Amino acid sequence: MKKTIIQALLVACLLSSPLFAQTAESIIQRMEENTVHSTARIEGTMIINDRFGKKVTTFISYTRSNGDTLIEFTSRDEAGQKILRTADEIYLYYPDAEEVIRLKGAALRDSVIGSDMSYEDLTGGKGLIDSYDITLLGREMIRGRSCYKLELKAKRRNVAYPKQIMWVDDRDFIYLKVEQYALSGRLLKEVYVEETQTVKGKTLPVRTIISDKLKKNSSTMFIVDKIDIGIDILESTFSLQELTW
Which is the most buried residue in 60, 69, 164, 192, by most CB within 10 A? Predict the structure, then answer.
């Protein structure tokens, strides 16, 4: 009887330990719960470094939990340009031409304002669990923070990256590093989160570097200058009718 009780206690201790407490899917689920908000308004800066030098672009973005996103650029050279994402559709608005363009096919792989982010990175409204088979590879330290290391392999072909390796902080459940691969296994992009901030109980990336590995000496830093989450945003904000305003 004593042996049975001891064995049960040992099993309980193992299951409650950090190593066994999380499955791959539960880690991703907790990460998405932490980083997805009902609504958000962000004022941000992109610092683009490439072979042409350094370029600074500012923007305001509005998002909601279903994936709808509106980005309006506010820096001098790009002022008034907008990107609208609804479901899996991407629309661009150029104020000089007073023209709305719907992106599709190969155009989705084009760079956003010369940055290391593509329009394709804005697509894919489904959560990671719906889009990928996820395997927990173990743990690694990223800049002194203990992380779960996960491998994500796409369940279908219509995703931007067939494979990703992701390091998720095991305390705050936020990704700190992501490697994104082509079907061939070639590394396409690296994402590093350099700084996080807790807002209304959620830990969010506020300084992130993206490097497109198909470009030489190229990187883009995304800085969140101000963020408001859980705010009222008009439904019309994400409509084509409002895009040209």
Answer: 164
